[in-house]
UniProtKB/TrEMBL annotation:
Catalysis: reaction(s): tRNA(Pro) + L-proline + ATP = L-prolyl-tRNA(Pro) + AMP + diphosphate
Official protein name in the record: Proline--tRNA ligase
Location(s) in or outside the cell: Cytoplasm
Comment on protein domains: Consists of three domains: the N-terminal catalytic domain, the editing domain and the C-terminal anticodon-binding domain.
E.C. numbers: 6.1.1.15
Example of a GO MF term: ligase activity
Alphabetic keyword roster: Aminoacyl-tRNA synthetase, ATP-binding, Cytoplasm, Ligase, Nucleotide-binding, Protein biosynthesis
Function per UniProt: Catalyzes the attachment of proline to tRNA(Pro) in a two-step reaction: proline is first activated by ATP to form Pro-AMP and then transferred to the acceptor end of tRNA(Pro). As ProRS can inadvertently accommodate and process non-cognate amino acids such as alanine and cysteine, to avoid such errors it has two additional distinct editing activities against alanine. One activity is designated as 'pretransfer' editing and involves the tRNA(Pro)-independent hydrolysis of activated Ala-AMP.
Natural source organism: Thalassotalea profundi
Domain of life: Bacteria
Broadest EC class assigned to this enzyme: ligase
Quaternary structure and interacting proteins, as annotated: Homodimer.
One Pfam short name: HGTP_anticodon
Length: 566
């Protein structure tokens, strides 16, 4: 690749719209461009990285015995009605009609399509087990897309689905996939942790998430400081011995700021209908004098029923979410709930949906947090940490104490059980001739999110420091004053041809730019080796090699350069 024939598209300034470093660097290094909220074009350099991640994932899936398929992104509503998720999935599911007025969805995930496929294709136990995967675009109408491709609306996922006659077989494949995931993240060169996770609305018995550790991560992960126990915070809370800490609801009530209103007071801001709804939705044990921690408007009671001019008078820690939103987010990100344009801090009481444990997330205007530690995340709003599990608590595993770190969820595997197979009549004839419902596993990896997560973990003030396996280019040839020196030009051309022949992914900077501009671009893009060709070093048949990761510069004989890539 020659830069003169390439779309480099680097930016000097940091775009103001980008909050996290990976998003800033992805824009500056010319990896992606925003098209609309949560929608991105991958520019050539970004696409190279994406494809490298994809290829590692594909190779490891194949090694683990999974077979590649490709399912449509547009899926008929019928399938979703059959599984029950047409009702259950909530507003992240983008629904559309075709010209015949038939309903469809843009696939946020593919359990329905694959289960229907297997129900049709497989009839005998002899064809089992089977594990199919695809690498396909997903669409989720995220309430608050942010952090660039980290939480897009359209994103690339590898999803695999396995089908089994019995649970023992499912467990074997699950373990197999778990191991494949570990290999993938090791090959990607990322600092990751598998953590036990709640299965949530998707159902099933066992689940693990894979997290890339990074301060900008949206999830809290609880580790034991003395064992290898690691769980996402929801699971850690579910496992924590009951009664060891005061309930979060109690704590929050105790620290609530004075402008918290009672339920009675809040109701006066609402329409008559909404008042009724609020009163019937009191969190367990509350009465009309209880401070309002979270307000959940169900069904068709929308925000606009609250008079806008009264909003600032409504106690600050309020949220408004439809029943649907509560259901969708209850098992993933509490922080997803909340009005987008409400200029007040928002606290979400997920228990309003379940009337069970109080787990919460929080939002400030246009900001999404899940599993927040409120001390740290909510500006201008002092609330104690209301986690049921906090740092220093005894670990639920019985060894050591809890340490909490931030993670980016890059993978998630589930033992699904019979949920979809049962709903969609997916079974086979067993050896004894009876019909048996299959049991399923599903395994997701956020391919596009990984690109951003890798940058969160690997950057410095000059730009991206790619792990070598996914660097867009392995080397950049940077000639000094090529226009003036025939010798430099010739050496650069020869080296370029040689590296290309050897299959090295090399970019040849043949622009008429100052050296400083070229260096800055390649350091920003994060190419592991800069091969700097200067007139003076050619007297001794040498070039200068700069290692992007260590920052070291050294002289190297031209005929030794290939050894960098072997
Ligand atoms: P999150 O908790 O971040 O919303 P999720 O639990 O809803 O993710 P899964 O249904 O488990 O996501 O999907 C599998 C993987 O797809 C996730 O582990 C993540 O890496 C990726 N993913 C999910 N949502 C997005 C998104 N909006 N943008 C980019 N990647 C995503
Ligand atoms: Mg999640
Ligand atoms: Mg989600
Ligand atoms: Mg998940």
């Amino acid at each position: 690749m020659r830069t003169s024939q390439y779309l480099l598209s680097t930016l000097k300034e940091t775009p103001a719209s980008a909050e996290v470093i990976s998003h800033q660097l992805m824009l500056r290094a010319g990896l992606v461009r925003n098209v609309a909220s949560g929608l991105y074009t991958w520019l050539p350099t970004g696409l190279k990285v994406l494809r490298k991640v994809e290829q590692i994932v594909r190779e490891e899936m194949e090694k683990a015995g999974a077979i590649e398929v490709l399912m449509p992104m547009v899926q008929p509503a019928d399938l979703w009605e059959e599984s029950g998720r047409w009702e259950d999935y909530g507003p992240e599911l983008l629904r559309l009609n075709d010209r015949h007025n038939r309903s469809f969805v843009l696939g946020p995930t593919h359990e329905e399509v694959i289960t229907k496929l297997i129900a049709n294709e497989i009839s005998s136990y002899k064809q089992l087990p089977v594990n199919l995967f695809q690498i396909q675009t997903k669409f989720r109408d995220e309430i608050r897309p942010r952090f660039g491709v980290m939480r897009g609306r359209e994103f690339l996922m590898k999803d695999a689905y396995s089908f089994h006659l019995d649970e023992t077989c499912l467990k074997t494949t699950y373990q197999n996939m778990y191991n494949a995931y570990c290999r993938i993240f090791e090959r990607l060169g990322l600092d990751y942790r598998p953590v036990i996770a709640d299965t949530g609305s998707i159902g099933g018995d066992a689940s693990h998430e894979f997290h890339v550790l990074a301060d900008s991560g949206e999830d809290d992960i609880a580790f034991s400081d003395q064992s290898d126990f690691a769980a996402n915070i929801e699971k850690a809370e579910a496992l924590a011995p009951k009664g060891t800490r005061p309930s979060a609801t109690q704590e929050l009530t105790q620290v609530a700021t004075p402008n918290v209103k009672t339920i009675e007071e809040v109701a006066t801001f609402l329409s008559v209908d909404a008042q009724q709804t609020v009163k019937t939705l009191l969190v367990q044990g509350a009465n009309e004098n209880t401070p309002v921690i979270a307000l959940v408007l169900r069904g068709d009671h929308q925000l606009n029923e609250i008079k806008a001019e009264n909003l600032s008078e409504v106690a600050s820690p309020l949220t408004f979410a439809t029943d649907e939103q509560i259901q969708t987010t209850a098992n993933c990100n509490a922080g997803s709930i909340g009005p987008v344009n409400l200029p007040i801090p928002v606290i979400v009481d997920r228990s309003a949906a379940h009337l069970a444990d109080f787990i919460c997330g929080a939002n400030v205007h246009d900001t999404h947090f899940s599993g927040v530690n409120w001390d740290r995340d909510i500006q201008n709003y002092q609330v104690a940490d209301i986690r049921n599990v906090v740092e220093g608590d005894p670990s639920p595993c019985g060894q050591g104490n809890i340490v909490i770190k931030r993670g980016i969820e890059v993978g998630h595997i589930f033992q699904l059980g019979e949920k979809y197979a049962q709903a969609m009549n997916c079974g086979v004839l067993t050896e004894t001739g009876k019909n048996q419902t299959l049991t399923m596993g599903c395994y997701g990896i956020g391919v596009s999110r990984i690109v951003a997560a890798a940058i969160e973990q690997n950057h410095d003030k000059y730009g991206i420091k790619w792990p070598s396996a996914i660097a867009p280019f392995q080397a950049a040839i940077v000639p000094m004053n090529m226009a003036k020196s025939a010798r430099v030009k010739e050496t650069a051309e020869q080296l370029y041809a040689q590296l290309q022949r050897a299959g090295v992914d090399v970019i040849f900077d043949d622009r008429k730019e100052r050296p400083g501009v070229m260096f800055a671009d390649h350091e920003l893009i994060g190419t592991p080796f800069l091969l700097i060709i200067g007139e003076r070093n050619l007297d001794t048949q040498e070039i200068e090699v700069k290692n992007r990761i260590t920052g070291e510069k050294s002289l190297m004989k031209i005929d030794q350069v290939m050894s960098l890539f072997q």
